[in-house]
Each structure stands twice: as structure tokens, then as C-alpha cells.
Design a protein that fits this description.
By secondary structure, the protein is mainly alpha-helical. The chain has helices at about 1-25, 30-40, 50-65, 70-90, 95-120, 125-135, 140-155, 160-170, 195-205, 220-235, 235-250, 255-265, 270-285, 290-300, 305-320, 325-335, 335-345, 350-380, 385-400, 400-415; strands spanning about 180-185, 190-195, 210-215. It has a 3-stranded antiparallel sheet with strand order 2-1-3, covered by helices on one side. Strand 1 and strand 2 form a beta hairpin.
Length: about 425
Amino acid sequence: MVLALLISAFAIAQKKEIKDAEKAIKSNNFAAAKSALSAAEGSLSAMDDKTKAKFYFLKGQALYANGTGDDQDVSDALESFKMLVDTENKSGKKVYSPKADEMKVTMSNGFLDKAQTALNRKDHGSSSINFERAYRTSLSDTLYLYNAALLATSSQRYEDALRLYDELMDLGYTGVTMEYRATEKETAEEQVFPSSSMRDISVKAGTHEKSRNVKTDSKVGEIAKNVALIYIEQGETDKALEAIENAKKSNPDDYNLLLSEANVRYKLGETDKYKELISKALEIEPNNVDLLFNLGVVAADQGNVEEAKKYYDMAIKTDDTYVRAYMNTAALILGQEQGIIDEMNGLGTSAADDKRYEELQDSRMQLYNDAVPYLTKVLEFEPNNINAARTLMNIYSVLGDTPNFKAMQAKIDAMEGDGN
């Protein structure tokens, strides 16, 4: 009888502590709720399944504390909800699991709001933490985990970034999704719909046309590149290259992975390997103007003027509005001036030297004239490019072209007056 009375009193104490926790949560007194649950936890093994499930549900709520819990509390809250699901799966009676699912949706939305708010104020570290939390509440939304990894990288939280990238790779994440698109008739703009059915409804309604499905690019290359760059930053070159090679094993034909390896090789100073990889990428996308431009930059860095100009010209031929190619070509041409000046300064006063001086002066003037069309094109597409305008003004001054000099000077004055 004494034993029975003790067990009865024990059960009453359990229920009181859990009831106290429930009341405290309703009044947002989460500290009191955690205290009551802590007292009840010692007798967890003696609870029946229903009481145990309720305990885990309340504990999750108390730890989350309407979004005010710290990282460890949030992690523990999610673990408590997991224990709740396990408990009710075993008993076959799901009373609190649906409530926990609703709670996790609320948690996820709260974390996403915090992640976006932090992102808007460029606090990438905080945004990463909250994207990860959002993923932990909804494990099917792997995009949140990917965002968390990217933001951990940009905020230089490299250990967290590597941990998240490893998890993504273990999950076999590629980031490839299907986009359901159609063109709005009124604006002639293509729009992306959340689902094919919603897209098809708009097409049937007559507001949209030209429906199509588009697969997004794989993120595997981006992940491998970021992992490799982190290892390079940490001075672990071997691990950087290993990350690329491992990604290539499962995705040998991934175009973005090819570009990623090229970027890593460039970062390591392996310019010849970089050029080889970019050339392979151009075989896949021969009209990729950025790749052509990059090969021009590498050639220029190596002092190969003719090769650099060839690639810049190819970029311009591919896209005649590509301003960077015009600007770099002008810089490439004008960069040859120093060699001419050095030779002029080294000449003596003989008749032969005077003749050579005149030849060099003519070559120097020709460089200026050769650069003018490229700089003019820059201003055609970017009228407020003050660097191009100033360079042109100086060239016109040297060439003695007073009308164009004054016109360019007036243009610069107008830019500076507008704050450009």
C-alpha cells in the first residue's frame, strides 16, 4: 500500500510539473516552463507514452521560446520534437506530432524572416545561421541548407561552411530543379510559375503563351569551387584540388564544374591549366563572351599583347555591347606607350637617333589614334563612364584635337556636376 501511495504521489507530481510548464508557456514565461520541465525530466522513464509525448512537445516549445532561444536551445528544441515523433510512432497514437509539425512550420517561417532581414542588412553570418535553422525544421528544403553554406562562406565562417557543404554533398544535392515558364502576353516578359499546373491555368486563361520547362544549372560546380577556395584560403592546396577531383568523379561532364576548376587553377597561379580548361569550356559554349574576355585578360597578364587583343576582338564580335572588352583593348593599346617612351629617353643626339625619335613619336601618336575608337565605344554604351572620358580628353589634348578636347572636357564637367 505504501508503494502504491508513493507511485500515485509520483505520478501526481509529474502531471503538476507538466501542467505548470504548459501554463508558463501560454503566458510566455519560458524560463519557468524550462524549470518545471527540468524537474519532470528526472522521471521521464516512468511516464506513459502519452505523457512522454506531451513532455517532448512542451520542451520543444519552451526551448524555442517564440524564436528567442539561442543556437543550442533551438537545436535542442528540434531534437525534442524528433523524440516526440519517435515516441508517438512507437505507440501508434499521434496526438502531439501534428501540433509539433505546425510548430515547426511557424519556426521555419520565423527563421526565414530573420534570414531575409539579416541578408537585407548584409549580415551574412546571421542570415546563414537562420537559413540553417529553417532547414533543420524542414529537411526537405535543401535550398535553405545551400543558402546557409553560401552565406557562411561569404561571412568567412569557413568551418561552418565546410560542414554545411559536406552535408550537402552527403545528401547528393545538385540544386537542379525544373522551372515552369510562360510568357505574359501583355508585357512580353517570361515568368516563372511555382508549378506546371499554375502555369497551365494561366496559359488556358489566355494571359500567357509559349509555355516551356527549363532545368536549372547544377550547383555541384559552385559547391566544389567554394570548398576548394576555402581550402586555398587556409593554405591546404591538396585538399582544394581533392575537392574538385571528387566532384568530377560523380559529375564528369558538368560545365560549371569545369569553370570552377578553371577558377581554382587561376587562384593557384596555374594560368596555363586555366587557359586549357577555359578553352575546353569554349568548345561547349563557343559564344560565351565572358570566357573569351577572361582569356584576353590572362594573355594580357602574361604580356602577350597580340593574343590578348585577339580574344578581346572575339568578345566584341560576339557581343558588340561588351564594354569591358572595349575598355581593356584601349588599355592594352595605351600600355605599349611606356616601351616607346623608354626607348625615346634612351636615344642620343645623333642624326640617326633624331630620325628614330621621330619614328617613335609617330608610333606613339598612332597608339593614341588606335585607342580612340574603343574608348568612344565605351562612352556610346556607358555615357557616364568618367574614366573613359578622362582618358579620351587627355588623348585629344596630346593629339592637338582642340574641338574634341573641349567637348570631352565639357562632358566630364557635366558628369562631375551630376555627382558621377
